[in-house]
Amino acid sequence: MKKQEYHPFEDNAGEFQDKLFETRIEAVNLAYKKAPKSEWAKYAERMIHIIFLLLGLITVGCVLLITVYLVISGIPAIREIGPVDFLFGREWASTAAEPRYGILPFILTSIYGTAGAIVIGVPVGFMTAVYLSKLASPKVKSVMQSAVSLLAGIPSVVYGLVGMLVLVPGIRKVFNVPDGASLLAAIIVLAIMILPSIIKMSVTALDAVPKEYEDASLALGATPIETYFKVSVPAAKSGIAAAVVLGVGRAIGEAMAVMMVAGNVPNMPDSLFQSVRFLTTAVSSEMAYSSGLQQQALFSIALVLFLFIMLINAMLNFFLKQEKE
Amino acid sequence: MQNQFLSEKRKGYEVLMKALMLLSVGLTAGLVLFLLVYVLMKGIPNITWELLSTKPSYLTEKIGILPDILNTVYIVLAALLIVLPLGVGAAIYLTEYASNRKVVSIIEYAAETLSGIPSIIYGLVGMLLFSNSMGTCLLAGALTLVIMNLPTIMRTTQESLKTVPQSYREGAFGLGAGKWRVVRTVVLPGCVDGVITGAILSVGRILGESAALLFTAGFAHTVLTFPLGMKSPGATLTVALYFYAKEQGEFGVAFAIAAILMVLTVLINFAAALVQRYFAKRRSL
After folding, report:
1. Angle of helix A279-287 relative to helix A292-324, nearest 10 degrees?
2. Is residue B40 domain-shared with residue B93, that is, in the same domain?
3. Which of A44, A131, A157 lies closest to B24 in CB terms?
């Protein structure tokens, strides 16, 4: 183990504590290994160690299992249809006499829908987070934080239900279109659903900004608001970026609420008022009655969705690591 | 006032940002309030004793949600029974046993990946893994939820394990205790709060889950018994809500279920906050 020292001026106290903690565990393990024991006790302890190791490896096993299953069941249809026809085909007609399996409409809808939700949800969430972290009184902060937790806990079918009965008729009336179940309705529902993740994570990042930064800015004559937006926010930018990426992940993976408000017709997303189908809803809406190549194509859609999610996860990890440093 | 010395531009910035922040906070707060009031107002008048205590009948054309309530309870129980030992065990391995940093970081990365996977993918994989071998049933749904909730239990337990002072462990070792005895008598009692918090969070997540259960646990509305009924298909409250609202247009029943789910969500959030506060207080003593 590398020797680590505590530097009071470099503010690595937390890291130092972690290292110290680990060193002490190692010391205990070593002392334990050297201690005299009966053969039986050694054997029992070894077994227990192995049991815990297996429990620890369950998550790794699950990830591998999910990946392998998705790849194995997703590849055949892509092979049969052809990767280009599958990914860039503009038409999805799985039950037609001559079935067409192009998922470009779903991919574009998922991207547009997520982008729309980010455009609406991020500014609102970000502004709320700055207020809660910097300006709100402790009482307001704690009340709002429980409200945000509640928003995060509401089941997605409830969002879908309220969207179906409030948002969809509302859009129909306001914009005077024949059907309100549309991309716009899905964007609004998604924007609301990603709010809690964005607010929570941004507040955590903003709370962690050292007070000295702000004090220095205030002492130089900046107003509190200028300080928060021009000093605190840039200092917390990795955390806020992570919050946005988390929101993207939530939005692209949401299925049930979107299924209830987006109309679910496999159109190209040409306008906000088009009835559309997302990657997630493409999987769930036909799964119940599909078979053969159609079902395999649904698995391939899930594989594409999974790849998107893995990409987003990697980005999230990147920003979180930056935040730590 | 400091403000009177500011230039027009800076004053404008100040006012604009303040307005935007207040607007956003107002919007968020208004949204929560609206959702809460709207769902409860629409739902509570539809909740009758008959709805809660019967099953749907084609003869009388009445809808009852008793089977859905029972199924939800069964799935929560079964999933927790399986996931708690697994998650706690994994957390104990990470904080107490693991000495290889690489293994730890791989396991933690896997847990993060699991918590990022959307529920529809869990539903699909659950269908391939469990439902294809044991049929569409509550048990298959519960097992799918076990994978989903594993990272939550692991994380909360791990966090509470880190707060058990290292000197307790050293003291126990010094008295000649073996590793397993230390884990059992010193470490495990110290992580009770993490386990309880994790369990509450998981219950909340399971209650709200629908996409992962559609293809694993099915849609049936028959009254089942625990644990034998786990081998039969059944809809939970959320799946029933989706079914009644989207497929049958029974919005009264859907709102009644939504109101029940809303009240449960509020209670669970409250319980989680309460538990955290209780243990934080006890720890600081």
Report:
1. 140
2. no
3. A131
Unique residue bearing structure tokens 């709060």? B193
What's B235's domain CATH number?
1.10.3720.10
Cα–Cα distance for residue pair A188/A174, rounded to 1 Å: 14
Tell me which chain A residues have a C-beta less than 8 angstroms from the C-beta of B10: 223, 226
- What is the ipTM, given to two decimal places? 0.91
pLDDT tens-place string over residues A59-97: 999 999 999 999 999 999 999 888 888 898 888 887 778
- Name the one residue in this structure whose structure tokens are 């495990």: B188
**Number of helices (H), then strands (E), in chain B:** 14, 0
Q: Which residue of A has its CA nearest to B238?
A: A157
In sequence order, the 6+-apart residues with CB closer than 8 A to the CB of B109 are A317
pLDDT digits (tens, 9 = 90+) for A207-248: 999 999 999 999 998 899 999 999 999 999 999 999 999 999
H helix or E strand, kind and range, residue B88: helix B66-92
Range of the domain at B15: 3-46
Name the domain count of chain B: 2
Task: Quote the tokens at residue A186.
Answer: 């899905």
Same domain, yes or no: B64 and B38: no
Q: Is A304 left (phi over 0), alpha (psi -120 to 50) or beta?
A: alpha
